Amino acid sequence: MFDDPHLAPRAANFRPLTPIDFLTRSLEQHPDRPAVAWREHRWSYAEFGAIVARMAGWLRDQGIGPGDVVSVMLSNRPEMLAAHFAAPAIGAVLNTLNTRLAPDDLHYIVTHAGARIVLCEPGAAGALDGSGIAGAELCREPGAGEGLDFFSGPVPPLDIRMPASETQAIALNYTSGTTGRPKGVVLTHRGATMNALGNVLALGLTRISSYLWTLPMFHCNGWCHTWAVTAAGGMHVCLDKVEPAPILDLIARHEVSHMCCAPVVLYMILDHGGPAAAHPVLVVTGGAAPTPTLLEGMEARGFELIHAYGMTECYGPSTFNDPGPAAPGSVEERAAGLSRQGLRHLTVGGVRVVGEDGRDVPADGESIGEITMSGNTVMAGYYRDPEASEAVFSGGALHSGDLAVMHADGQIEIRDRMKDVIISGGENISSLEVETVLHRHPEVLLAAVVAAPDPKWGETPCAFVEIRSGSALDATGLEAFCKEHLTGFKRPRRFVFGVLPRTATGKIQKFALRQRARDEASS
Amino acid sequence: MFDDPHLAPRAANFRPLTPIDFLTRSLEQHPDRPAVAWREHRWSYAEFGAIVARMAGWLRDQGIGPGDVVSVMLSNRPEMLAAHFAAPAIGAVLNTLNTRLAPDDLHYIVTHAGARIVLCEPGAAGALDGSGIAGAELCREPGAGEGLDFFSGPVPPLDIRMPASETQAIALNYTSGTTGRPKGVVLTHRGATMNALGNVLALGLTRISSYLWTLPMFHCNGWCHTWAVTAAGGMHVCLDKVEPAPILDLIARHEVSHMCCAPVVLYMILDHGGPAAAHPVLVVTGGAAPTPTLLEGMEARGFELIHAYGMTECYGPSTFNDPGPAAPGSVEERAAGLSRQGLRHLTVGGVRVVGEDGRDVPADGESIGEITMSGNTVMAGYYRDPEASEAVFSGGALHSGDLAVMHADGQIEIRDRMKDVIISGGENISSLEVETVLHRHPEVLLAAVVAAPDPKWGETPCAFVEIRSGSALDATGLEAFCKEHLTGFKRPRRFVFGVLPRTATGKIQKFALRQRARDEASS
Hints:
The structure is a homodimer. By secondary structure, the first copy, chain A, is an alpha/beta fold. The first copy, chain A, folds into 3 domains: 20-338, ANL, N-terminal domain (Rossmann fold); 343-417, Luciferase, domain 3 (Roll); 421-522, GMP Synthetase, Chain A, domain 3, CATH 3.30.300. The first copy, chain A, has helices spanning 20-29, 45-61, 78-89, 103-113, 189-203, 220-223, 225-232, 244-253, 263-272, 292-300, 331-338, 386-392, 431-439, 475-485, 510-522, and strands at residues 34-38, 41-44, 69-73, 93-96, 115-120, 135-137, 169-175, 183-188, 210-212, 235-237, 258-261, 281-285, 303-311, 316-321, 343-344, 350-354, 368-374, 381-382, 398-406, 412-417, 421-424, 427-430, 444-454, 458-467, 494-497. Chain A has a 9-stranded mixed β-sheet, sandwiched between helices. A 4-stranded parallel β-sheet of chain A has the order 4-3-5-6, sandwiched between helices. In chain A, a hairpin with a 5-residue loop joins strand 19 (398-406) and strand 20. The longest helix of chain A has 17 residues, at 45-61. The first copy, chain A, starts with 19 loop residues before the first helix and ends with a helix.
C-alpha cells in the first residue's frame, strides 16, 4: 500500500537536486554577506547574484539554451565563479578549459564538446582562431572599458530553468586520461550537489568561512568548491596568480580559513618566508603526500594540512585524511600518517581497493589493488565515448586506474598509477599523450614517458627514447619538436636515449623505467 | 548528445539515497568511537552495529520483509535507535508510537498502519490486548534476563537490502492533525537522508558531538537526529526520564554538546537550579518562543538557544533561527529576535508565507499568511488517505496550516495555527479530536477546544461547552468522561460553560474563544 499512486513523488515533495539552489538560498538568506573578493573589489551575495543574472541573460540572448555547451577559458575571477551558476541556470552545460592549453588541445576540446561559445580572458580569444568556435572576451575588470562587462548594467530576472531531471549534465570537464586525447567527463546536477555537500561537511565550511582560490576553478570545477562554498554561504577570495606574496597578502586581508592546492604551492609559500598567518588556515592538498619538512614548515606558518584523493571522474575529492590540529606523534610520525589519502566523505558511495578478481584486497597496508569508486559522486560517463565509459565502469564501479593499499583503519594509500598519469604541479599529464607526440617524430623508434620525482612540481615527465639506427637525434632536437606540439607543462624535462626494457611479451617495462627515472633525478 | 544511453544512471554512479548508508560509513570508518550511552552502559559503533544486526536478523526471522510495517512503542533506549536502522535495512517501514497513547489511539494506529509486530518496553505489551497485533517485549536492560535481548548473542550479517527506489517509504509517523483521528505521515529514504544532512549542517554536528536525547525518538524520528547524529559519527546519549537531575548529570558525564526539547523542559532545568554546565550546550527548541527570562536563565547556565520550526509532515525541523553565541543586543532584544522561527536549512526546497490567492505575502513582518513548504524534505503523503494528501498538497506545496508573517530578513514568525493544534509539552493535540470526544457525551450540545497559555506546558486544552437545557453536567462530570476516552495530556485542563460565540454563518468564533482562554488563564 506504500506504492499507492497518491504517495508517488510530486512537485511538492520532489525537487531535482541542483547546486543552483545553493546560490538561490544564499541570495535569499544573507544577500548582504560577502560572496566574492577580487583585486580591490568585493561583492555581496546580492551583487554576485546580479553578475550571475547578467551572464545568464547574455547567454540566453546569444541563443544558448538547454543542453548547449558553454565553454569558459578563464582564471579564477568572479565571472568564472558566476559561470558555474549562470550556465546551469539556463540549462546549459559548463565546459571549463585549462587556461594553459596548447592550441591543438584547445581546438580539439571545443570541437569535441561542440561548444556554442567560449568566454575568454581579455586578449585571449585569438587562441580560438581556426577552431570554428567564437570567443567572447571579458572586460579587464569592473569599469575597465572594452569587453563583456557583467559587473554593471541592468539586472535581468535570473529566471532559473530547473533541470528536468537531476541526472541532467551540469558540467563537461576534459581530462588527459590514458588514450592521449582528452576525454570529456560528464557531471550531473545530482552528483555536483552531493559532492559539494560532502565537501562542506568534510571541510567544515560555514557562513564565516573565507575560501582562497589557489586551486584553478577550471580544475574539475574547483573540486566542486565553487558550489560548496556558495552552499555554506562563505566568501570566495579570487586569486590572479598563484604566487606566495599575493597568497599571504590575501590570507591576511580576507582572514582566509580554507584553501586547496598541490604541494608545489605550499613549497613556494615555505620558500617565501615571512611571518606566520595570524589565524589557522586549513589546506587541502593532493597529488603528492606532504613530507615531514613540508608538514613541519607549514604548521609553523599556521597552516593545518588535510590530504585528499580524487579525480575529475569523481567530481574532485572522494577521500580526506584529516588528522586534526591535535594529532599526536612526532612530525615524522604525523607525516607518515598524513601520507595516506584517507576515508571517503559522507556522500561518496564506496571506495574500495580490489584485486584483479574484483575482490577487496586484505586491509593489511601491503596488498596492492586498484581503487574503485561508486555512488552518486561518480560521473555519468565520457562524452561521445561509450567504449571508454563501458571500460571504466566494468564490474559496476568506476576504475580509477590508481594502485593502492588498504590500511586496517580503512584509509587508502596510493602506491602507483596504473595509467601512468604524471602529476606535475597538480595537473595531470598523460604519458601516452606525450609518447604519441614523440612517436610522430620520424627518427623516433620507440618512446616511453614516465614520471620523474621533482622537488618543485612533484613530478615531471621523463622520456626514454630509442632512435632509429644511424639517426643523430638528440635532446635538443626532441625539445624543439615537443615545443611545437605540446603544452609547456607536458614537455619532458629529461630525455634518456637507449634500448627500452621489454617484457617477454614485448610490453615496455615501465616499472623499470620509473626506477631509472628516480635514479636519474637523484643523481 | 547528453541524453546518449551510455550516460544514463547506472549502478556505478547512482546509489539510492538512504540514511542506512550513514550507519554503514560510521561502522567502517570509526568502529571504536562511542555510538550510544545509556544508564551505566556504553556501546561503540561496532557494538551498536551488532545490536542493529541482531534486531534486523530477528525481524527477518519473524517473516518481516520489504514493505512490512514494524511498530515500536519505546522510550529513548538503544533498541529504539537501532530500530531506525534495522527496520529500513530489511526494507521494512518503521512506525514509532507515542509511549503515552491511550489504548483507543494505540489500537487505531497499529490497525491502520497494518503493523506486523510491535516492539514494546518490558511489561508494556498488555496495552495491545484486543488490538489483534502481537507485542514483543524487550529485556529490561543488558544482562537482565527475560524479554528480547539484542545486546548479546551471535551477530548475524547485517545483509542490507537497499531500497529499490530512494522514494520508498522508510517511516510511518502518526500525527494528530485536524480530523481528530491520527493521520499516518509517510516519509521516504530520500527525504530522511536530505533532512538529516540539513540537520547536521544546521547544528554543526561532527564526530565529537555528544547528543542528549531529551526529545522523544518517537516524535518524528527524533526530528531525523536519529540519522543525523549517526551521519556525523557522534554519540547518542539516551535518557530514560525527562527530569532535570538526570539531564544535568548526563550533560556533565558525557560532555553533551547538543540537545533538542520543548521550552517546558528548559523551564524544569531553570527551576532545578545547580551550577552551570562546564561547557556550552546547544539547545534547539520549538513549539513556543523562548521568553527573555528563559533565554537569560539558560545562557547563565551555559546553554545556547536555537529556535526551530517544523512538522512531522516535513521530517522535523525545516527552519532554524540561530543567532549565534555573540548576538548583540539586550536580552529582551535578543529574545524578540529569537521569537522568529528562522530560515530554511540547506536541504529544504522552499518555505513561503502565502495569502489565500497563493501569492507570497509582503515581507513586512505584519501581513499574515499560511506557511507552505516544498522540496525533498516534505512527506510522500498520508497513508491510506488520498483525500487528505490531495488537500494538504493543493497548489503544489505542503500547506502547514500555520499562520505566520514573513520578515524582511527572510525569517518566518508564527502568529497562529489555522488547524487549532494545541502544543502541550512539545506534543500536538488536535482540538478537533478533543471536541469529538466531548460531542460524544449525551448532554453536550456543542463544544470548542482551544489552547490556553500555560507557564509549564506552553499550552493546554481549554474546553468551551454548551450543554443541553435542563442538564446538570459540570466540570467534574466531563473530567471523568474525558478520562475514559482521552490520553492524559489531551484532556482539557479547564471547562467553561455557556453559549459559544458564532459568526453570521454559524461557525464558532475560535478567535474569540482563544482570547477568553487567555483571559481565564491570566485571571
